[in-house]
Write the structure tokens for this entry.
Amino acid sequence: MIYLDYAASTPIDPRVVAVITDIYENHPGNPSSRTHKYGVDCRVIVENARSQVSALMQAYPYEVIFTSGATEANNLAIRGLFDFGSKNDKRHIITSSIEHKSVLNALGYLERAGFEVSYLQPSENGTIGIEQLERAIREDTLLVSIMHANNETGIIQPVEEICDLIDSLPDQKKPYLHVDAAQTAGKICKELQKLRCDMISVSSHKMYGPQGIGALIVKQNDFQGAPIEAILFGGDQEQGLRPGTIPTALIGGFGEAARLALELQERDLECAKAVERTLLQGLSEAGINYAINGSAERMPFTINVMFTGVSSEALMIAGRNEFAISNGSACTSNSYKPSYVLTAMGLTPEEATDSVRISWGRGIDETQMQNFLNTLIPIVKSLQ
Ligand code: PMP
């Protein structure tokens, strides 16, 4: 059985497990307890991890706000601006129709509270046009929220150009910029490190760390971070932005995952590209009817493929003892409907239904991908 659903969650790196196990076994305590050694030791672990995550993102440690994952980071970035937007008559937000549900549903909440949201549509190639964004920006635009790479297609959005566009606007018209980098953080490091945006959402379990932890990076550009406020009520942990006992072991594991990502980034990327080449070549030589969804630049860890006339459900059932792939995002897969990402890109509901996501990363090599193809292709042929 081969696991090729890394975009849903990556396998945890054994080195991360070792760090987490050590913390669970040897470091009881609450990092916020200042009165004894146990608490202080936990605080050292958390601050060390914060430095590791900030080094990965080329941010300052105080810009890292730990959250339970990218879902919460996205909520904090968006709903956290509610009061500021309301008080300053900035109630317009721009996003795209292919964002993750944690962005779309947080924005739906703001719409119900009187905000207006403009949803940019992707073109057939899977990207959002920069001119479309330029036209949508208004005097009362509070925030632009655009993902770095899409979780279903792996297509990379033009976030650098978006930064340039926002930079070029007069100060009073500049919206805040939030980038959901759940899919790319720890994988496409260089681009993210130089991104001049206000907030970046990161998830540990997409970069070989544990599930249930992530961060919102709130950049203090010119000493002025986006004026977000906490969306939960409680203690003053994480600069008052994220109350709740700080989970030392998860954060320690996330820190180790960030350290490894920084160390292994080139190797991981080269390896993923080689695996992608094997996959693309195998598909092109297979003599089957297929199309790759989205033609723009893609991260070399994820691909979305339509096998014409083959329902994704039938394909996954036929291959369920051999491989794990998916259709759509795990966060929406309880109720299977044709993917809203693919239909927004112009695919018909039938084409979207015939599409699957294959995603890989650290631990998958060319031989394993070839073995997967050797299993997949006869199944596709038998169903076509
Ligand atoms: N945004 C994107 C683009 C994602 O792919 C995911 C994970 N499916 C999330 C946000 C949510 O991340 P988490 O699982 O850490 O809440």
Remarks:
- Residues 248-284 form the longest helix (37 residues).
